[in-house]
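A quick word before the example. In earlier lectures we treated sequence and structure as two separate objects. From today on, think of them as two lines of the same record. Here is Cadmium resistance protein CadD (Predicted permease) written that way.
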Amino acid sequence: MDGLLGTIGTACVLFVGTDVDDLVILTMLFLSARAGGRPRPGQIVAGQYAGIAALVAVSAVAALGLAVVPDPWVGLLGLVPFALGMRGLVAAWRDGDAADGPVAGVAGGTLAVAGVTVANGADNLSVYPPLFRTMGPADTAVTVAVFAVLVGVWCAVAAWLGSHRRVIRVVERSGHWLVPVVFMVLGAVIVLESGVVARLTPG
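And the structure line, produced from the sequence above:
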């Protein structure tokens, strides 16, 4: 029992430590869903689960000694939310105040939400594989199950945070500009903090 509780505790700490920033993105998405109708809540939840599942799958493969994405280049995943944000800004500029929802041009569907989740979880790919490598099949299965439960908790918390009317009104007024900027900043931070720019710079 102590071993099981220890595995559950480790999984909880690991998830919270590596995915706490997802709360910000999920809250923004749920705010946009309430203010503009896109993406739909079901798409947000499905996209978050798909993104976390992809991160876990890649980490599991990496734990077996197969480098799916070389570590120095993981930071390039930050280009995904940056590109989505840029697309959203272009849509907002083109459509003006009549833009179809705050994230219509940013993350309007399940795949886009999953892409942002994967990009925002680039640091997970440096944390999960070493842990999975030291675990047996049973502990790994428990960890994945805990992750699945906590993704649901994260979505529920974000949906609650995104239900405040005053914030929704702000998003309704300026979300079609604000949300793309948030996604672009997120992407830039991921790229810069990974150090990939230095690797691409000669000398």
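Notice the following. Residues 97-105 have pLDDT under 50 and may be disordered. We will return to this example when we discuss secondary structure assignment.
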